[in-house]
Amino acid sequence: MWIKKLNLKNFRNYENQEINFCKNINIFYGENAQGKTNIIEAIYMSSIGKSFRTNKDIETIMLNKDNSLIECFFEKEDRDGKIKIEINKKKNIFINGIKIKKLSELLGNINIVIFTPDDIEILKGGPQNRRKFLDIMISQLRPNYIYNLNMYLKTLEQRNNYLRQIREEQKDENMLEIWDEKLADYATKICKYRTDYINNINKKIKNIHKEITNNKEEIKIEYISECQDKNTYLNLLKQRRKLDIIKGYTTKGIHRDDFSVFINNKELNIYGSQGQHRTAILSLKISELQIIKDEIGEYPILLLDDFMSELDNNRRKNLLKYMKDAQVIITCTEKLNIDSLNCLEYKVDNGKIFDKDKI
To answer: Could you tell me the end-to-end alpha-carbon distance of the chain, in angstroms, rounded to an integer?
Structure first.
């Protein structure tokens, strides 16, 4: 799988830009705030359908313009394809010229693994960061996952609204059983997807992390949920009903789930150093890469947004070993010394991209 070409019109600071890629390593270098990350963002949106930098699509439109356009041409082992995203007051997505109705139709066309300096917050930040990580990765491989997740969130909102009506308008609390049943149904399906994915990560990450740390560290991930069993979760909802009514929201469910990382049986978030956090996220991302490869039979596209600068030479060398068979798109402030690998270099300057031969 590889991206052949990207066309950007009025996207961030690109007024009209065509970018051609090679199958191997593509490096975009230049000073900060020149537009390097915008390239990564456009590819990410072509894969996931939304930005990793903002929740407001309109923010991706160039200043003083009314709309923006992304066209991403890609090739897989069994087909060629084109993703087109039009952004104005609304966002329209087309696959091979056909407008899609649901975001789940986009997922899985272009598989990606993204590294950014902020990724360390997946492990150091709150549980919502880890849930988002799982949601993005699972949805690429299991498009039906996003349907179940959206239905869960919709049901959760309905239940929360009714909880407040019980509290404020004395509605019949027995009616909650309707939402409890639906909530538990979706929750257990989502929990199964997440549990299976964590199990797959654990199968991969143990050896990867040992290799990266020269056999000094053993890593393990534990998924934390109270929704593995439908009846158990239904009973929990009943036990918490009075509290939920007082608070006006649902206090238990997969929207509260989390996972913990352990290094040598010690919880990383409590005992881990900055270096251990960085190595753990590197191991986690490489595990993603291998899981996708096993699942679809070809490597996903690696997006490294100013990530190489965050790694010391040893971690950088370990990452490069896993990159050799995938298309890699790297942004950085300076040229990288990776002469042993085939690569295409571009300089980015104020929303313009220059081939190294024309600099």
So the answer is: 29
Using an 8 Å Cβ cutoff, are 73 and 5 in contact?
yes
- The C-alpha angle with vertex 275 and arms to 197 and 328, in degrees rounded to 5, equals 60
Q: How far apart are CA 49 and CA 57, in angstroms?
A: 10
Determine the angle formed by the axes of helices 313-323 and 176-212, rounding to 10 degrees: 110
For residues 104 and 304, what is the distance between their CA atoms, to the nearest angstrom? Answer: 25
Q: Determine how many CB atoms are found less than 10 A away from the CB of residue 275.
A: 11
Question: For residues 176 and 183, what is the distance between their CA atoms, to the nearest angstrom?
Answer: 10
The structure tokens listed for 314 are: 């040893």
Please indicate whether residue 221 or residue 359 has the higher confidence score (pLDDT).
Answer: 221
- The pLDDT value recorded for residue 342 is 72
Rg (CA), the chain: 22
What's the predicted TM-score (pTM) here?
Answer: 0.89
Q: Which residues of 193-227 are buried (b: 16+ CB within 10 A; e: fewer)?
A: bbbebbebbeebbbebbeebbeeebebebebebeb
Instruction: Give me the residue label for tokens 């490597």.
Output: 299
Do 34 and 12 meet the contact criterion of CB atoms below 8 Å apart? Answer: no
Token pair listed for 24: 């191997």
Map residue 116 onto helix, strand or coil.
Answer: coil
User: Among 49, 192, 41, which residue's Cα sits nearest to residue 107?
Assistant: 49
Q: What is the pLDDT of residues 256-292, one digit of tens each?
A: 999 999 999 999 999 999 889 988 998 999 999 999 9
Answer whether 201's CB lies under 8 Å from 221's CB: yes
- pLDDT-based confidence at residue 129 (cuts at 50, 70, 90): very high
**Phi, psi at residue 266, to the nearest 5°?**
-110, 135
Q: How does pLDDT run across 186-212, given as a tens digit for each residue?
A: 999 999 999 999 999 999 999 999 988
Q: Quick check: helix, strand or coil at residue 320?
A: helix
How buried is residue 328: exposed, middle or buried, by Cβ count under 10 Å (0-12/13-18/19+)? Answer: buried
Per residue in 311-351, pLDDT (tens digit) is 777 777 777 777 778 999 999 988 776 655 678 899 999 99
User: What is the Cα–Cα distance from 25 to 39, expressed in whole angstroms?
Assistant: 14
